[in-house]
Amino acid sequence: MGSVIVAKDLVKKFDEFVAVDRIAFAIEEGECFGFLGPNGAGKSTTMKMIHCASPITSGQLSVLGMDVKERPRDIKNLIGVAPQDNNLDPDFTVHKNLTVYARYFNIDAKVAKKRADDLLEFMQLTEKRDVNVENISGGMKRRLIIARALMNEPKVLILDEPTTGLDPQARHLIWERIRELRRKGVTVLLTTHYMDEAEKLCERLVIMDKGKIVIEGRPADLIRDVIGSEVVEMDEPTDEMEAFVRSKGWDHERTIDRLLIYAACCDDIVLIMKERFGLVTTTIRKATLEDVFLKLTGRKLIE
User: What is the architecture, at CATH level 2, of domain 3-223?
Assistant: First the structure.
């Protein structure tokens, strides 16, 4: 395997606004690679540059060995894109949405029909084959958008928040299909606001904030290195409690109603806090990728 997507000093500006600020990454063939970040972090802009929907401002970006500035049409032919927004054709049936889309890639009509049928089976949509797309559920539309992105048998599949708004059954079906595609050698690029989704699916990921890459690595490694293995959650903390935690040098954060302490083993910390402050409501839980995300990008709501 080798790197199928490589970026060096990649920059994207909109007038004077820097949306992507000199980032670098390499994505390997057949892996699921995640782009995480709060709204406005630059992840969707990065995706658009990768599938040649938005030109780069400066730096270098190659996809499948081709420069995005020199061969955008060739790159588009080898990439599948499932956007966040529903852009299915409301006048067509489920099946026709796929076969009409196939014309953009000059796929033979017979081949397109067979491929569409196979993809509807793959995404468990066969029963809705001849139903107008306006008459299927939102979850089915998401699955159809992913099926459409696979019509040209792409080597790279870009999924922009593929499971937003879906019920658990639909989410898990899409997760299974992503894993199956990876086993077939498809490289998957994923953006999501669901940290559990990124933790389960991504072999590696980056967390972006304000146009820069804050950190990169495997989810388990990021959790271990940034947080530790466990988190103590203490309800209704006082300033005295926080000062004591700080004096101990324990890695921690304070929210409106909780004190979070990060460590490899938290049992001793709980005992020390209870001995010092008496009965304190505490919970020890496993550290997660969401802890990493919030610690690195902050807890302030970004609109």
Answer: 3-Layer(aba) Sandwich (3.40)
Multiple choice CATH, 228-286, 3.30.1490.20, 3.30.70.790, 3.90.550.60, 3.40.50.720:
3.30.70.790
For all residues of the chain together, what is the average pLDDT?
A: 94
Look at residue 298 in the predicted model and tell me its pLDDT: 85
Q: How far apart are CA 208 and CA 162, in angstroms?
A: 19
Pull the structure tokens for residue 178: 């992503």
271 is written with which tokens? 């005992």
Selection from 234, 214, 210, 241 nearest residue 225 by Cα: 214
Backbone angles phi, psi at 55, to 5 degrees: -70, 150
Three-class SS of residue 34?
A: strand
Q: Which residues of 175-212 are buried (b: 16+ CB within 10 A; e: fewer)?
A: eebbeebbeeebbbbbbbebbebbbebbebbbbbbebb
Asked which of 66-75, 128-137, 245-254, 277-286 is least confident by mean pLDDT, the reply is 277-286
pLDDT reported for residue 85: 87
Write out the two tokens for 33.
């690679």
Phi, psi of 237 (to 5 degrees): -70, 155
- Token pair belonging to 243: 């000062």
121: alpha, beta or left? (left if phi > 0; alpha if psi -120 to 50): alpha
Looking at residue 303, its pLDDT comes to 47
Q: Which two tokens stand for residue 148?
A: 């459409």
Please report which confidence band the pLDDT of residue 301 belongs to, taking 50, 70 and 90 as the band edges.
low
Q: How far apart are the first and last CA of the chain?
A: 40
Rg (CA), the chain: 23
Domain ranges, ordered by start, for the chain: 3-223, 228-286
**DSSP bridge pairs for 207:** 36, 215
Q: For residue range 101-117, list pLDDT tens digits in order.
A: 999 999 999 999 999 99
Secondary structure (3-state) at 154: coil
